[in-house]
């Protein structure tokens, strides 16, 4: 069975639609937490994929600089061993930082359904996708920007890496939980929580299909061959 190492915060461990698709494809998901020095410095043997989830944290203003640096080292280790990386929102920011990019604070938060302008709809469709962040990514040198919108870069690739600023994984209940935890972001963007919740439930099936398509395209087109991966004895 192929194994994905999931990096998450204790309050946001749900892999949602992305995790569902990986499990449908026969993947085992193993989660480590950013808190408490839970992130290994090197990719563990037997890891076939690194999945970096979103977070209430921001790379632009690190809550735990040591945890951020540990995750950056893990991302670079994945590259050294040809382990593919899929970074979602904060996870995309970590990928950028790990490879020499930058993350700043956006002039305006991005919350709710967003469309993106894509140069490769087969890999990253235009959406709409769910967004919940207040950051802007400057991709690292050598990255290929796949999608953007008026708020900035929304997706980029590196060899073996896909990083997206939006949330393909998020399910309706998780989105409503975020809205309850961070009402100031909704207020700043003029998003009505009840309207967003209704949209999320109405679009749940579409979101699941879109996430599955993104995962499938990532595995088929971005993930490298396993020639240099560390295997268990």
Automatic annotation (TrEMBL):
MF term (GO), any: transferase activity
Uppermost EC category: ligase
Keyword Aminoacyl-tRNA synthetase among record annotations: no
Record-linked InterPro entries: ChyE-like (IPR044992), Class_I_gatase-like (IPR029062), GATASE (IPR017926)
A GO cellular component annotation in the UniProt record: cytosol
Keywords: Ligase, Transferase
Keyword check for Transferase: yes
Domain of life of the source: Bacteria
EC number: 6.3.5.2
Cross-referenced Pfam families: GATase
Domain Glutamine amidotransferase, first and last residues per copy: 62-174
Protein's UniProt name: GMP synthase [glutamine-hydrolyzing], amidotransferase subunit / GMP synthase [glutamine-hydrolyzing], ATP pyrophosphatase subunit
């Amino acid at each position: 069975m192929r194994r994905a190492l999931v990096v998450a915060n204790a309050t946001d461990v749900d892999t949602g639609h992305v995790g569902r698709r990986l499990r449908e494809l026969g993947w085992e998901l193993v989660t480590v937490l950013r808190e408490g020095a839970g992130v290994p410095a090197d990719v563990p043997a037997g890891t076939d994929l690194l999945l970096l989830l979103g977070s209430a944290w921001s790379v632009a203003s690190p809550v735990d600089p040591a945890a951020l640096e540990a995750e950056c080292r893990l991302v670079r280790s994945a590259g050294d061993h040809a382990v593919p990386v899929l970074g979602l929102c904060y996870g995309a920011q970590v990928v950028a930082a790990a490879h020499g990019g930058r993350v700043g604070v956006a002039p305006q938060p991005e919350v709710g359904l967003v469309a993106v302008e894509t140069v490769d709809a087969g890999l990253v469709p235009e959406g709409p996708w769910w967004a919940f962040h207040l950051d802007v990514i400057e991709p690292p040198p050598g990255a290929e920007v796949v999608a953007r919108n008026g708020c900035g870069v929304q997706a980029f690739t590196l060899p073996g890496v896909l990083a997206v600023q939006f949330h393909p994984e998020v399910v309706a209940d998780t989105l409503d939980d975020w809205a309850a935890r961070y009402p100031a972001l909704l207020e700043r963007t003029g998003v009505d929580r009840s309207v967003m919740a209704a949209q999320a439930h109405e679009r749940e099936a579409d979101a699941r299909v879109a996430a599955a398509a993104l995962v499938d395209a990532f595995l088929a087109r971005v993930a490298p061959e396993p020639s240099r991966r560390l295997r268990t004895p």
